[in-house]
Amino acid sequence: MTDQHEDPKFEQWLKDVARTAYHAPRPTPREEMWARIQDARRHKHVIELRPWMRWAVAAAAVLVLGIGIGRWTVRQQQPAGGVTPVASGTDASRDSSRDLAYEVAATQYLSRTEAFLTSFRADAHTPASSARFATQARDLLTTTQLMLDSPAGSDPHLRALLEDLELVLVQISELNGGAHDTDLITQGMNESNVLPKLRSAIPAGPGPVRTQGAL
Amino acid sequence: MDESQLIARVRAGDSAAQRALYDAHVDRVYRLAFRLAGDDALAQDFTQETFIRAFDRLGSFRGDAAFSTWLHTITTTVVLNGLRKVKRLRQRETDIDDAQAIGVMKRESEPDLKMRLTKAIDELPEGYRTVFVMHDVEGYTHEEIGAALGVETGTSKAQLSRARAKLRVVLADFAGEWT
Q1: Domain check: are B84 and B111 in the same one?
Q2: pLDDT (tens digit, 0 to 9) for every residue of chain A, 215 residues total?
Q3: In whole angstroms, how far apart are CA A141 and each of A57, A66, A188, A192, B158?
């Protein structure tokens, strides 16, 4: 079908015009970029994954994959028009267990992040605790970014929350013990209402209960 | 000195070799980043990130393919992931701006060819746009594109063909210029 559209004259004209008119680059700023690359490599903090961290990253990946597959398949099964069909007993129980797995995983992640940020706001004013929080933030940041880049991040409510969390966690992960930095992060958290939003996304009550509406 | 020797010296920690490798490839990386990002600051960020990753991971480069192919895989990954993040942030800002601008919209005057072309290419689906920019604008071969994007050569050709077909429809007003 695409062969029907081939037109050498048009293709040559398009190439010529696009090369001169489409986002034409300026001369490469070699020296500026080289200086920044050198600087960034000198100050790069190398994070070595210890065995338990590798396990945590792998678990996060599995978690995100599970969430993505679960949500994708649920979406695929929804008919146009939003009319919910009467499910057979087998389908209903499969959907139910998939939903439950998703809710447990999401609730655990959100609860853990909420506990971490609450603790950070209260306790992060000493250099020793800053280092500890920075380490924990990097761990949570990995999970957050995996979730953002998975199909789970296509949910607009969850994505907005994850983006806010990513920003805060990046700042905390780069803490180097300055009280001023800690104050700025806390102030930013307060202004963007991250904790209230996070808490409202976590369902009340014990156990894996519904997260709908928040997620 | 050929490139494999240069890479061996970079691995051994030779900073002059590192700079030589950078000089050999930076133009192409920066040009592609600029074409895809349309913004100098972003293009510089993406180029820097590409080289930082490349130097950090040079130990994993086995030499099965050309170094440039390996580097352009990193470039496209960095640029496309970076643009997705920028798009998310910009979308949030746009939503706010749109809400404030309701009721004050004006009819735009007819844009010229450059503006129409830029808008048409920007609005192509990501895959079509990437292949179009790499092939028709920056002169990459389908083999290079396939390797960089992790797709079959045939997929690259098909996406280019679809991109051109879409652009031909959108730019039909200018048909007199190529017929």
Answers
A1: no
A2: 444 457 889 999 999 999 999 999 999 999 999 998 988 877 654 434 444 444 555 566 566 656 655 655 555 555 544 444 444 445 555 555 555 555 666 677 888 888 788 778 776 666 667 788 888 888 888 888 887 877 667 778 778 888 889 888 988 888 876 667 788 888 888 777 787 777 767 665 444 333 333 33
A3: 10, 18, 17, 18, 38
Radius of gyration (C-alpha) of chain B in whole angstroms? 19
ipTM of predicted assembly, 2 dp: 0.85
Give me the CATH number covering residue B44.
Answer: 1.10.1740.10
CA distance A205 to chain B (A): 32
Chain A residues 112-151 within an 8 A CB cutoff of chain B: 149
Identify the domain boundary among B85, B105, B125: B105
Is there a contact between B44 and A34 if contact means CB atoms under 8 Å apart? no
How many structural domains are present in chain A? 1
**Residue range(s) defining the domain that contains residue A108:** 50-79+86-201
Q: Identify whether residues B88 and B114 lie together within a single domain.
A: no
Candidates B46, B171, B178, B179: best to mutate against A (most CBs of A within 10 A) is B178
Rounded distance between C-alpha atoms, residue A74 and residue A69, angstroms: 8
| Nearest residue of chain A to residue B19 (CA atoms) | A34
Q: Domain for residue B177, yes or no?
A: no
